[in-house]
Amino acid sequence: MIYVVEKGDTLEHISAESGVPVWKIIYDNQLDLPDRLVPGQALLLLKEGETGHEGEGLRVGGYAYPFIEPEILMQAVPALHELLVFSYGFTFEGELVPPQQDDLWLVEECWKRGVEPVLVLTPFSGGAFNNQLVKVLTENDVIQEKVIDQLYRAVEDNGYAGVNIDFEYILPENKVKFAQFVGRVRKQMSEGGYRTSVAVAPKVSETQKGLLVEGLDYYLLGENADYVFLMTYEWGYTYGPPMAVAPADKVRQVLEYAVTKIPEEKLIMGIPNYGYDWPLPYERGMTRARTIGNVEAVRIAAETAVEIRYAQIAQSPWFTYVDAGQSHEVWFEDPRSIMAKIDLAREFGISGIGYWNLMRPFRANWLLTGSRAEG
Length: 375
Hints:
- The protein is an alpha/beta fold and 375 residues long.
- The chain has helices at residues 11-18, 22-29, 70-76, 104-112, 131-139, 141-158, 175-190, 218-224, 248-261, 294-303, 335-347, 363-369, and strands at 2-4, 42-44, 59-64, 82-90, 96-97, 116-121, 124-125, 128-129, 162-166, 195-200, 227-230, 267-272, 275-279, 290-292, 309-311, 316-323, 326-331, 352-356.
- Strand 9 (162-166), helix 7 (175-190) and strand 10 (195-200) form a beta-alpha-beta unit.
- Helix 5 packs across helix 7 (175-190), helix 6 (141-158) runs parallel beside helix 7 and helix 7 (175-190) runs parallel beside helix 8.
- The mean pLDDT is 96.
């Protein structure tokens, strides 16, 4: 099902050996430059009418903004159980703020395709997460009740199946109150038959330090939510040194800790649908990586005629290239790395997987994950 290109391979040769038509290899893998196969490139090979079904038994979801291109959405839909619409916000006065773009078309499209739409709530202010908004919300019961009431009405009026609470940089002193807020949302939502999930930064111990994790109590959040979405990505990030976005060894550490605090049936493991392109040499505080799609990464490798390597510990593809005299290092996802992540989810017996985010094309991934099954 997954074939790694070797030097000298041609599409015609791979097609003859696999029985998969050339046109389908090109289409399924979104090969922008089909005449330039890249050594080390992972190709998904499925015959006509086949899907990988690797996601069978898992609940599969992903985040998307309301301005997602319909064509890209349709690529992902056959593999999805739920789509998390990003995002609603709220003011310091407790007024719910809907997305700037119309989200109703996305809700309607989801139900039409058998996918459950989920409203995402974030403490966004000025385009960034604001922990002062979280502080006011969790410490002021009047504002909290106001937000929860509006949230319930938004879910009910707009046809959502539930709520996902995605708060980041929560202050340590608000840790318990934040978990209690999640529980209050869940109690209100459950009255209408709606689910409540919470997204959390990756944590590996109770005493771990850091702005992203000190305000999170995995046990309390697991007690107060229907599902907990582990944001197991961003080890490689915009301002950090070049490395895999979601290294398998690091993700494993998070899962090992999470299952000691949260029931496996409540856990969703996050997967990145993107990569990064770093200019070299990396200088801390100076270098800024560019976010790229996984299909785009392979196109760059093809255009610059370089070999794609695969890091065995991180279970992630990467390569280096030179453009206009500037060296670059790229880390991204391919069918092999996705399989490694799905295998991790199965190993730990968790409920499902979820993607941040669906805005970039990755048809091979959705074909690999396969048609919806009970999960």
